[in-house]
Specification:
This is Cell division inhibitor SulA. By secondary structure, the chain is α/β, with parallel strands linked by helices. Helix content is about 30%, strand content about 25%. It has a single domain, classed as Rossmann fold (3-Layer(aba) Sandwich), CATH 3.40.50.300. It contains 4 helices and 5 strands.
């Protein structure tokens, strides 16, 4: 028997459940650099920009080039230039030119990002967390 009295709840189109948020657990600076190279190399295949928000250490250009990372598609925003992280994330996601956004443990956590009302997109958000 088919029930017709069931109520349907419409979900908004702008909710972060559609966004992939990956937590990257690192022990030290060396493992963080290797994990970052892996993330950047994966994103490079999408031929889009990668946004690095408040990196602990700006990646060394020679290290990136040795890992075959195209540095011309990287955008770095330092912590001191960000006043509203949610606004920056919404802008990057809505822009349409970014494949991924990378954040570091000192600046925000994956839990805090999941609570933000971000537009749905295929941009992957990577949160580097310490052990």
């Amino acid at each position: 028997m088919l029930r017709t009295d069931a109520s349907l709840i419409a979900t908004p189109t702008t909710y972060n459940a559609a966004n992939r948020i990956n937590e990257v657990w690192v022990e030290d600076e060396i493992t963080a650099s290797l994990a970052l190279l892996k993330v950047l190399h994966t994103c490079q295949n999408k031929h889009a920009w990668t946004l690095l928000i408040a990196p602990d250490n700006v990646p060394n250009k020679s290290l990136l080039e040795s890992g075959s990372v195209d540095t011309s598609k990287l955008l770095v925003i330092r912590k001191k230039h960000i006043y509203d992280l949610e606004y920056v994330l919404k802008s990057a996601i809505s822009n349409g030119n970014f494949a991924s956004v990378v954040l570091w443990k000192d600046f925000s956590s994956a839990m805090a990002i999941k609570e933000m009302q971000l537009p749905a997109s295929d941009v992957i958000i990577h949160c580097f967390q310490g052990m």
